[in-house]
Amino acid sequence: MANEKKFDIVIVGGGSAGAVLANRLSERRTRSVLLIEAGPAYASGDYPDIIANADRVGGDDHHDWGYHTQDHLGLGHDIKAIRGKVLGGSSGVNAAVAMRARPVDFSNWSKHGLEGWSFEDVLPIYKAMENTPTGEDAWHGRSGPFPIRQRTMEENTPSMRAFVLAAEACGLPRVSDFNGSEQHGVSPYPLNVVGGNRINTGMAYLTEDVRARSNLTIRGGVEADRVIFDNHRAVGVRLASGEIIEAAQVILSAGAYGSPAILMRSGVGPAFHLNELDIPVIVDAAVGQRLKEHPFYYNVYALRPEVNSMTPAAGAIVWTRSSEAGDNELDLHISGTHIFDPADSPTGGAIVLACSVTQPKSVGTIRLSSRDPRAMPLIRFNFFQDKSDLRRMIEAVKLSRKIAATAPFCDLLASEMLPGSAVRDDAALEKAIIAQVDGYSHPTSSVPMGGPEDPDAVVDSRGKVRGVDGLHVVDASIMPDIVSAPTNVTTIMMAEAIARKL
């Protein structure tokens, strides 16, 4: 059944990118915009505590897609692939870390033949989107819709403050502003948290005033099946319910798992895979072939009972380089949080030093399990497929343990819970890392951007899908390669940048 109204633009997915696009593209009041979101579309001031409370991370079953990877053959276990199913998307369930990508990350993008995505190009867009009261004017915006607040040492827990001081004692410099000129070192986080609330894009960009625009329609609880084409032009979207929505232009912002799945169900993807599922091929494209994710390993310590405060949950981070880092790269994180169930600690309190390789070389994939729009896609991270990633993760955990053995931090710790004191040599540590590795919830690059000479590029520098008209993809899936920072702020910036060109 066709919709009575044909929209100028339909945006599929109201997450970190989709909410931004809905705001910006509906600023032109002569243009009708429909935003569809699979999860609940809460009013901007009416999000439940599981989404709004910054100390509650990861959402719940009602606000998550319930995905997991198919990595058991390589790693011995699958990995939860958490993605927010709510207006605001994963910006509603993440740790609210608001750190930009670095200049070298964008230099890596330029190797794919892209123009317009240098750090010099994007810095003004980062600044325009943010409002932050601290830092230097050269690096920061004061009046954008997205709030970024620098957490102070005083706001952190005693153990988190001690983690920062011990990292300094190990030779890591204190960073005053990760979104400023220097990132190498340790500091409390910058966060999109105000008054304890995680400010997701559904709050920041889809305010009540924006939602009141007569040319913007938002529908929650709506799942997309596929894009409808007339020859090679996108003309609408078919929903999982069977409803048809007609549109002059379709934008997929369903995330690094959702957007490639919709594309493949629509006939845009690897021909060999689409043929397996009897999906007519419209464009033979390398969709789902270059998935990237940051591997994440939890080095966990029980806190002494007298210092077992765990609020606020997100605290501080080390950003440094491994012995194998490229020029100007910072390829290791040690992220200090209290995102841990205190009931699982023998002392009732714990601190997690979560180690990550932020410039991984291993490449994952996304495939369809069937043509059913409600079927979970087949996701494989393929962590440690490239042995460099494993070697660098071992370096990160060794540094994490060194910090934990250093005063004043060591004085606040009761015991190491993971990997545990029995794990001492490299062989045992490697085994523990492989057995327990998780994902940082930063999936990217499954529908990558690239220049005309990049054979694996699915979209151009503006997110337009090659080989068809009227179809764009704008979300973390189009990053040509994963960045060395948490991905959310950069995803929002990309939506801001592309919205200016649509």
From TrEMBL:
Gene Ontology CC: one annotated term: membrane
Keyword flag Flavoprotein: yes
Domain Glucose-methanol-choline oxidoreductase N-terminal: 84-107, 255-269
PROSITE patterns xrefs: GMC_OXRED_1 (PS00623), GMC_OXRED_2 (PS00624)
InterPro entries hit by this protein: FAD/NAD-bd_sf (IPR036188), GMC_OxRdtase (IPR012132), GMC_OxRdtase_N (IPR000172), GMC_OxRtase_C (IPR007867)
One GO biological process term: glycine betaine biosynthetic process from choline
Residue sites binding substrate per the record: Y440
Flavoprotein listed as a keyword: yes
Record-listed FAD binding positions: V86, N94, A95, A96, V97
Cofactor needs: FAD
Keywords of the record: FAD, Flavoprotein
GO molecular function, one term: choline dehydrogenase activity
Family per record: Belongs to the GMC oxidoreductase family.
Name of the molecule in the record: Choline dehydrogenase
